[in-house]
Design goal:
about 25% strand; extended; alpha+beta; about 1000 residues; 33 helices; disordered N terminus; five-stranded antiparallel beta sheet
Amino acid sequence: MISDKKKEQKPVEFPDDIYQSIINDIRDTIVEIDLKGKFTYVSPQSYHMFGYKPQEVVGKSGFQFIHPEDVLSVMNLMKTVIKDQKHVSYEYRAKHKNGGYVYVSAKGGTINREGKINLIAVIRDISENKIAEAKLKDSERQYRTIIESMGDPIHVVNEDLRIILRNNALNDWLKDFNINMNIIGGKIADTFPFLPENVINDYHKVFETGKTLVTEECIKLNENEIYTEVRKIPIINEGKVIQVLTVVKNITDKKIAEIKLKKSEKEYRNIIENTKDAIVIVDFEGKLLYVSPQLSQMLKGREISKNSRFFRFIHKEDVNKLISFYKTVLNEKTFLEKPVEFRILPKNGDYIWFSSSSKNYYDDNGNVIGFISTLKDITDKKLAEQKLKESEQKYRLITEVSNDLIRVLNDKFEVEYVNESSLKNLLGYTRQEILGRNSIFLNHPDDYTKVRRFMLKLFKNGENIHNTSVQHKNGSWMWYENKAKMFTDEKGNQKYLYISRDVTERIKTEKALKESEQKYRLITENSNDLIRVLSEDFKIEFLNEKAHQQVLGYTRDDLIGDYDTKLFTPEDYPKLRRFMLELFKHKEEIHVSRMRHKKGYYLWFEVKTKMFKDEQGKTKYLFISRDITERRQTEIALMESEEKYRNLYKNSPNAVVLTDKNGVILDVNSSAEKILGYGKSELKGRNYIEFNMANPNQITAIKKMFKQVLKGVKPKHIELQIKKKNGNMIWILFQSSMVKLNNEIIVECIAQDITDKKKAENLIIEENKRLLELNKMKTELISRVSHELKTPITSIFGGTQILLEVYKDQTCSEALEFIELINRGGKRLKVLIENLLDASRIESEKLRLNLQKENIVNVIKNCVSDNRYIANKRNMIVELNMPEIVSIEIDKMRIEQVITNLLSNAIKNTPKKGIIKITLEEKSADVYFKIEDNGIGLTKKEMETLFLKFGKIERYGQKMDVDIEGSGLGLYISKEIIDMHGGHIWVESAGRNMGSTFYFKLFNNMNGTTS
């Protein structure tokens, strides 16, 4: 019958607020992408997962937030989703705003929105397990050693309250009570039957709350009463208590002493309880004639004896005030009810404030001989007054820096006070523009009726809250949540306090969420979490069938209408009842429990539950369950591998030394013994400084590294030369890091023997020195040879120039050809020698600039004029695009050298009838020079070597109609000259036969830059 009833049921339709609650409570990020790859929607969870707010990424391409290595695979999956119209799951690395990457898994498919196909996906951060594993690996190495080193009896229990670890101190303690058994694996109640009944509940409480619990327990064993202080400490991994560490301290002697003390204190309690104010009698000379014992108690044990001077105990700032008070008492001859306040220094701590009421003190003959005063401790009152004053200052400061708009209205609803900074930031008004005006002018006219109803309710209840539209000074309207409260000021006047918060974005969000029912349904169905909604009687009304079927094997018909307990084991029912009690109390709760798969086995889930009211006011329960089975299995596997990681520590080829924060050695591995030459027994318990392995400078460096480590800074490794036990010196690469275990700080030092590496480095350093000397000799040789060649080459070039210009008509044609050949060769040698000399000056830093203000336009025109003959000879066109005047501080001769070099290169590397364009632009503080040709162009490889020394490009045998001769020094020298001017030179080319464009940039103001 039940089966038939289920078949007749129809899926329950839920209002938008349920889906809104679901989307707000799941921790995954929801994204929607159009077919161009751009985000059209991103859920708020993206900020916590990736550091980006939704508005920062919506409209941008999703591929720019994916690791470059993962983009192609994600694009292919998206194509599959669009083509096959199916849902897929995949993993990739997503970019975080801090520059790093987050491992995520995504699951989703297509959605038809108003006839337009988009993609929607649920994204989950899967970095958590990896982080948990890394943290566990770091801590487990130290875990057992610390427990064994503690002197108090210790044991650790798991969630089943079984003992999984104990130290030797616990064994010794149990032997004193004739308990000789292996307690590992046993339950607490079975192993220690003599414990009080509430101990088991205490353990459950620690597992549930995650807070340390300290209790005192009385154990009756062998006719003896033993008092213990038991500290139950939760061991938390990823926000969940997985074990509880128990530390037992024997306090029997202390407890017996306390019981005896309590018995003795009863005899004096009545006297202490009736003690009130202190009484003192002071004569005219300030000497104390009587002091009651209560004063010593008030002064924390400071004894003020009879016959001592009273005023020497008074604060020096209060002495004159007290003397003036006594004079008034003497003149009035009556008891002064208005007391005087002053300070007395106690035995320990700050001054204590007293209030004193006094009257004249008479002797037996009726003569006034002093004053009798009643002293009352008013320190708490004075401190309260001071705190009140500080509180008033604090709240005024809070008001002024609050992000909310705070106003105080009088009984005519006129603004008397407003926090100006918030007023200006939120609404654009100044204080003067709003003070004294009726606050209703800020409200939208359509809201006036609503505001009046709000005020009537405020008059009735004394406080009220509502949302209303408020106009900004610029005319725009914004939504504000207004909290109002009536109060009466010190003069009895009726006032109104208004606190207004900008909720414009929230209102817009709520409106958008209500319009997105289809999206929430799709998100729910594609969520990896199990989502269920239960009725008031805990029957399942709604579930995301796809997730339940994939994770637990159940369909909607298997569960709809059944009690939720169908999924749990009866053993967990008590735990579930406790969880539900907490849920009723706090309205939302998180816990971990098992759920049964349809095939009979159990999986572990982290369950987030929330109570809410539906539109009919009925109580509902939202359950969102995340499968954490794999994580728990990983944690168990990692815990079981403790010995394996200990072996890795012992067998590491590097020396590992563990010290406390003061440098005292706690442990070393075998490699440390081998590298340092000392045995473990010689090292443990001693400070590393005692061994004199390092010199004072190195000790200082190590101490500096220790300070950085203890401050949480990760220092760089350093190289040290240390002395082994046998006196041999070795080199080590030293680094350290800090490990926090509970409240103990451990410094891990790792040393790698790099002696062989240092020997090799020293050989390289010596070889480099020799090569530098050879390079220096080479440079000096080039400079010397160039200078020696310059004079004869100048003579040859000058002589042939005279023959060609003066005696050309007197020379036969055959001889003239040889003279021209000699002239061309001499000219090339002259240029080469000048370039070699400039290169030598650059290397030796002897090249100097002569900076002056010049019109660089004229410099360029002169260079073009000098090369016009060569350009005309090759039938080339040189176009100039320049302003008339561009004044700039340059070395005219050197800039001419650069421009001539670039122009001659363009002419040489452009076939005949080519076009060369020269452009000069002045942009604010910069001057840009550009020369472009339509010549043979440059490859990427050629551009990489173009500005290097002797970076000549060889083009022999390529049958190009260009001039291939040159030394490869021209562009190198040009670059150095531009660099010395503080500028920048570069080249661009699309490739072979695509032409080239050379650029250089200079600054109008070099700010005193010289070579």
